[in-house]
Amino acid sequence: MLLGRSDENKGRLAWITGGSSGIGRALALHLARKGWRVAVSARSAEALEALAVDGKGRIFACPLDVTDAQAVRDSFVLLEQEHGPVELAVLAAGTYRRDGAFNFTIERARTMIEVNLFGTMNALEPVLAAMMERRRGHVAVMASVAGYNGLPGGATYGATKAALNNLCEAMRPEAERRNVAVTVINPGFVDTPLTEKNDFPMPFLISAQEAAEAIERGLADGRYEIVFPWKMRIVIRLLHALPAGFRFFLMRRLVRDPQDL
């Protein structure tokens, strides 16, 4: 099932997790302008209500903590009972904290794994089951180009995104047998509250609105993988193709040892 164009989308229901800010928020507004009814979920009820106001009646708030598996199941059932079948689910909830060999802790790692990986899986379970039963639907998972290569400062974050890439690749052929599309979204640097934490230059940085437009185009075209911006895609692909020894040589140049600061 592919996204339609213009009038074809009117009245159809999309669900976006992680929709209170960043790419999720921009995508919710973009889809609403394209005619979709959009349910948005995140922990911040206040931010979701503000987004619903901006959505002018086409966006409605569904506050939710994606790390609570039972709450996600219950919320999805209630969402479909009240608003009809979800035809597009964009699972975009995520968090990011820099970590690596200098500051690795299981507590920091567990937080990112619970939100980025298990939070996505908690939503994927009811969404995929419903779509597979109906033999119709499109689910998109927000990963990252950070999942292609291990990058200094992004150890656990990159690991969660690599896992999501693998998960989607494994599920897509099976889901297609039931007419359900699976897409993985791999953004580069996008100007969001998460990337505002970075204290280093971010090449090819784009706005959340540009990211939303790229996602909508990719979904409408039925792509398995949506990567943006295109310059970042080329750089990451080239880096991934290099021999390991040369990659590590380049990565060492990015390392900032706290003892040297």
Automatic annotation (TrEMBL):
Pfam families in UniProt: adh_short
Q: Which PROSITE patterns match?
A: ADH_SHORT (PS00061)
List the GO molecular function terms: oxidoreductase activity
InterPro entries for the chain: NAD(P)-bd_dom_sf, Sc_DH/Rdtase_CS, SDR_fam
Origin superkingdom: Bacteria
Task: Please provide the record's keywords in A-Z order.
Answer: Oxidoreductase
Does the UniProt entry include the keyword Oxidoreductase?
Answer: yes
The record ties this protein, via Gene3D superfamilies, to: NAD(P)-binding Rossmann-like Domain (3.40.50.720)
Give the GO cellular component terms, alphabetically. membrane
Q: Could you tell me which PANTHER family the record lists for this protein?
A: DEHYDROGENASE/REDUCTASE SDR FAMILY MEMBER 7B, DEHYDROGENASE_REDUCTASE SDR FAMILY MEMBER 7B
Q: Please give the family membership noted in the entry.
A: Belongs to the short-chain dehydrogenases/reductases (SDR) family.
- Which protein are we looking at? Gluconate 5-dehydrogenase
Q: Which species does this protein come from?
A: Nitratireductor indicus C115
Q: What is the lineage of its organism?
A: Bacteria, Pseudomonadati, Pseudomonadota, Alphaproteobacteria, Hyphomicrobiales
